Each structure stands twice: as C-alpha cells, then as structure tokens.
C-alpha cells in the first residue's frame, strides 16, 4: 500500500529530514532532479520550457532546468521576475546557479511569447505553485495556466499541478492539467480526488531520501492507497471443493413499488460477485417484477404498506430469513418510512454481517436525528457492519444535510467521527465519491478510483451487492474489513471499465455493470496474482 499524508504532515516529514541531516537545499536539489528525470522519461525531449514561480516550487524548477541542460536538453525558464529579485534565499541561489550553467531565462513574457514557447516545446515543466498554495492563482500565473492548458503541450507538474489544492483536490478557478505529476515524499489527498483526478495525470512519488519511508509512517498516514496485490489477503481462496452454500448466502432486503429496480440490481450483483445463494426479500407488490428479472434468485414477498413499501408486519419473518444468511444487505430502493426504519432497527439487532446502503442510511439518519456519531450504541454490534454512504448521505448522517463533505479530506474526517465514536473493529464506512475511502477504526484504504461510467443511477446498488457477496464469502473482520470493502470497490471499478468498452463511456447502465461483475473479479484476481512486471 502507498501512504497518503496531509500537506501539513508532509511539511513535518521535511522538518524531520532536516533534523536527520538532509538539508532543505538537498531536498530541493533532489526534487528538481526527480522532476527532470520524469521529463526525460517522456521520450524524444529536445526542448523544455520550465514555468518557475518565486517560491520553493519554483526553486525545484530551476534545479530541474539546470539538470536538463546538463543532459543536453534545451531548457528555458519562464519567470515572473528576474532571478536576482527572487526573495527566498534558497530559490534565489538555485536560480543563480542555473543561469550560471547557461539556462536562458524569459522574464514576464506576453501571452503571444508564451504561446510561441509552448508550441516549440516537447515538454513543459510546471513549477509555478506548490503544495502550500491556497485560493485562486493571481497574475501572471492565471494567464500562464490558461495559455498552457490551451497549448496542447505535454506537461509534467512538480509536486502538484499549479492552481490545484493538494489537500482538498479543489481548483476554485483554474489549474494546470498535467500528463504526469511528480509529487514529493508521499501522496496527498487532493491529488487523488475531485479535480485532482483529471489534473494530475499519472502520479509518480519521489521519496527524496531513504529515511522518508520511515518518517512518513511516523506521521500516521491519513489513508493508504491499495495496490492489487494487497487484495490477495481478502480474496476468497480458489477451490473446486465448493457448493452453493460454502460460497456464501446473501439476503438482500430492498425495493419498493416505486423503486423495484434497485432491489433487482443489488441481488443480481451479489450473485454475479460469487455468492452461491442469494435471496431477495421485497414488499409483496414487487414480487412479480423481481421474479421476471431474476430467474435464478428466490424472491420472498413480505407484507407491504399501501404505498408498496415494507410493513412492520413482516419483521419476524425478515429476522428468520436474516438468521439463515451469511450476510445481509438492506436499503436499496426501499424508501424511508416509519416501517422501513423499523426494518433497519430489527436487522441491526440480528447477529449477522450487515451492509446498509442507500435508504437504510437515510433510515439511520432519521433514527439518530442526523447525528449518528452521537448514538454509537445503535451500531455497536458483534457482527460486521458496513455503511456505504455517498457524500450527501454522509452529510445527513453527520448533521450536515446542507453542507455535506465536499472533498476526500472532509469525507475522511466525517467517516472517522462515526467509526471512532463506535470504537469497534467490526465497523467500516465506505465513503463513496469520485475517490472512495473505506474507513475502519485503524486505517482508511483507498481503492483505485473507478471510471466515469460508474456515474449512473443504480451503480451504487450494484456496489452494495458486491460488498454483501464478498462479506458472505470471506467473513472479513477486524482490520481486514476495510480492505475487503476496498476490494469490492476495485471489482466495481473494473466492471465499469469493462462495461464502458462494450457500451461506450456514457452509454453504460447499472445492469451492464452488474452483468460483468464476475468477469471483473477474475481480472482483478489475475492481475493481483501475476508476477511483478507481467501486468501493465
């Protein structure tokens, strides 16, 4: 796994490195050298333009320019002020060194000159604004960013694309869109979420010092980015000595007359994800619809209220069904009523692994007056519990319905408040978003973000079905629980990619994702198990 640090934690690592004998000057030279190396890896690089700011990020750019010239590349630095006027002592020193080494400098050029420079460049190195940047880029950087993005040039960003917050992943106005981002010491949350997903391109981590790995761990990473090999420990072991029961049984409690499709999608996904036996419990009026779409899945009709939602009259039967399952999923499409709130309460009391998704989360919000963290006893249980809120649902659970988490960082904070209030390792929260975090009491794990094709109605129901199937098959608990959740998200993402290949990136429907879940799981397993270097 790759550690992810908040920006302020990275600064503490830098300070710790200086105490261990690695000076700030040495760090800048190593950062510039790492950036130059990535430029050279772009291939066929004869001319490079370096956009250098006036701070330490710009200093990295000056070092990179000198390194590139030494490698035989024609590198030109564009600076907003003459290098001798740079205020920072270190940045001023490396700029003077680069000039002495023969690096040409263009100071404060008009837009037409920039356009000409970019047209002639094989690569542009963005070293304008670093991880300490906040707010919106001011002149001349706003003009430089806009001109660069319009140029079509290949771009390598130093530490973070200029204009993007390395902490939040937000870019209030504009930011550089890079092909490669060379980030120093460790990954930062903003590189992996929101605008960062599109702005960063491929991300390369430059540790800068051999002590960095140890010091990063000392800072207690805010999250970990999972690699495929990490999932081997939570995959169901391959075996031919299985039957439908040993592969895990799942009960899906979902649907309503208004939203019957959510129940169908969740049950189908659970079956496609490898559960040997799936039972779907729906309100009685939904039975014919569900049976028409699910030939292989037993559909149980439970008493319904007039609007076609679950009635409390079926709670005892529901509990009996749940006790026979290896895992239960509740919530997709069932709507929020006093009776569905009672359904969720009853299932929470059953000693069986439970996934709560969609309207089950909204029922939890109603039960706790939108402050789940104030009612930890409600979700404290001996069996595993997985909650799968997207950001708006997470906001409702945390009393922030009008101001839900708007970044990966704030989603992590909100999820941790719930997990730490509960305090048990049986709880994991899957904080869904364009970058999803699977949060347990000891660690938060980020799977590889899925493609844009997942942004379609019903996709979350499919993920919930995958999650329940994996819980039933593996029985993951303790620290393995968030990793298992991340694995389910990874399979979901691969399924979205496979479906996009078949139907186009904007033509994918949730049922397309559900139907290829099994293929996606095989691909993930194959890649995770492949010897190093055999899978691109």
Silhouette: elongated
Q: Oligomer, anyone?
A: single chain
Taken as a percent bin, the fraction of beta residues is: 5-15%
Number of helices: 20
Largest sheet: 11 strands, mixed
Q: In which order are the strands of the major sheet placed? A: 1-9-18-17-16-15-14-13-10-11-12
Low-confidence segments, ≥5 residues, pLDDT <50?
none
The CA-CA distance between the termini, in Å, is: 18 Å
Mean pLDDT over the residues: 95
Structural class: alpha/beta
**How many DSSP E strands?**
18
Question: Rg from C-alpha positions?
Answer: 26 Å
Portion in helices: 40-55%
Tell me what you see in this structure.
The chain has 20 helices and 18 strands. Helices cover 42% and strands 14% of the residues. It has helices spanning 7-19, 24-40, 56-70, 89-100, 111-120, 141-151, 195-199, 212-218, 260-272, 287-293, 315-323, 338-349, 359-367, 376-379, 391-397, 408-422, 459-474, 480-503, 510-515, 517-529; strands at 2-4, 47-52, 74-79, 105-107, 123-127, 155-158, 180-184, 202-206, 223-225, 249-253, 277-283, 299-302, 327-330, 354-356, 385-387, 427-431, 437-439, 444-446. The strands form two sheets. An eleven-stranded mixed β-sheet has the order 1-9-18-17-16-15-14-13-10-11-12, with helices on both faces. It is an alpha/beta fold and 536 residues long.
